[in-house]
Amino acid sequence: MAIILGIDPGSQKTGFGIISTLNGKNSYITSGVIRLPKGALPERLRIIAESVAELVELHGPTELSVEQVFLAKSADAALKLGQARGAAIVPCVIRGLDVSEYSARQIKQSVVGTGAADKAQVQHMVKALLKLPGAPQEDAADALAAALCHAHTRDGLVRVAGATAIRRGRMR
């Protein structure tokens, strides 16, 4: 069984979602949004890092799936997004999680079936795939979608390679 932490990074709010996967079956553990205060970026980055570290300690994920930086509205926005990603990734790497990165298009393709899906479609499919009673918040749904994308990708690699499992990035 693998426990996958999905992160949808942002400098104003960062979504997270945690699922477990066993024999191709994915189960919801938790999700939410780390809401960041207005103010200096270093303080917001500290909050992201501490919050992600707390999630890792509490739920014990073994793998991290994070959305890659995309070309944002401006260079400044892209830099802030990159720093938020780094703040979320570092506590995971320190605790030994394997890190996988996917583009927003890959995540949407994996969960919805089209890389051009909108947020409402992602929310709907995450709700359906994880059998949730209601649609998660947008950023939490995006994070859960990142975790599901990783689960689908790793399951596909295992089937293609004929392996029985993946451990620390290697097929067995």
Automatic annotation (TrEMBL):
<dbReference type="Pfam" id="PF02075">
    <property type="entry name" value="RuvC"/>
</dbReference>
<dbReference type="InterPro" id="IPR012337">
    <property type="entry name" value="RNaseH-like_sf"/>
</dbReference>
<keyword id="KW-0460">Magnesium</keyword>
<keyword id="KW-0963">Cytoplasm</keyword>
<keyword id="KW-0479">Metal-binding</keyword>
<comment type="subunit">
    <text>Homodimer which binds Holliday junction (HJ) DNA. The HJ becomes 2-fold symmetrical on binding to RuvC with unstacked arms; it has a different conformation from HJ DNA in complex with RuvA. In the full resolvosome a probable DNA-RuvA(4)-RuvB(12)-RuvC(2) complex forms which resolves the HJ.</text>
</comment>
<keyword id="KW-0378">Hydrolase</keyword>
<comment type="function">
    <text>The RuvA-RuvB-RuvC complex processes Holliday junction (HJ) DNA during genetic recombination and DNA repair. Endonuclease that resolves HJ intermediates. Cleaves cruciform DNA by making single-stranded nicks across the HJ at symmetrical positions within the homologous arms, yielding a 5'-phosphate and a 3'-hydroxyl group; requires a central core of homology in the junction. The consensus cleavage sequence is 5'-(A/T)TT(C/G)-3'. Cleavage occurs on the 3'-side of the TT dinucleotide at the point of strand exchange.</text>
</comment>
<keyword id="KW-0255">Endonuclease</keyword>
<dbReference type="InterPro" id="IPR036397">
    <property type="entry name" value="RNaseH_sf"/>
</dbReference>
<feature type="active site">
    <location>
        <position position="8"/>
    </location>
</feature>
<feature type="binding site">
    <location>
        <position position="67"/>
    </location>
    <ligand>
        <name>Mg(2+) 2</name>
    </ligand>
</feature>
<dbReference type="InterPro" id="IPR020563">
    <property type="entry name" value="X-over_junc_endoDNase_Mg_BS"/>
</dbReference>
<keyword id="KW-0234">DNA repair</keyword>
<feature type="active site">
    <location>
        <position position="67"/>
    </location>
</feature>
<keyword id="KW-0238">DNA-binding</keyword>
<keyword id="KW-0233">DNA recombination</keyword>
<keyword id="KW-0227">DNA damage</keyword>
<comment type="similarity">
    <text>Belongs to the RuvC family.</text>
</comment>
<dbReference type="InterPro" id="IPR002176">
    <property type="entry name" value="X-over_junc_endoDNase_RuvC"/>
</dbReference>
<feature type="active site">
    <location>
        <position position="139"/>
    </location>
</feature>
<keyword id="KW-0540">Nuclease</keyword>
<feature type="binding site">
    <location>
        <position position="8"/>
    </location>
    <ligand>
        <name>Mg(2+) 1</name>
    </ligand>
</feature>
<feature type="binding site">
    <location>
        <position position="139"/>
    </location>
    <ligand>
        <name>Mg(2+) 1</name>
    </ligand>
</feature>
<protein>
    <recommendedName>
        <fullName>Crossover junction endodeoxyribonuclease RuvC</fullName>
        <ecNumber>3.1.21.10</ecNumber>
    </recommendedName>
</protein>
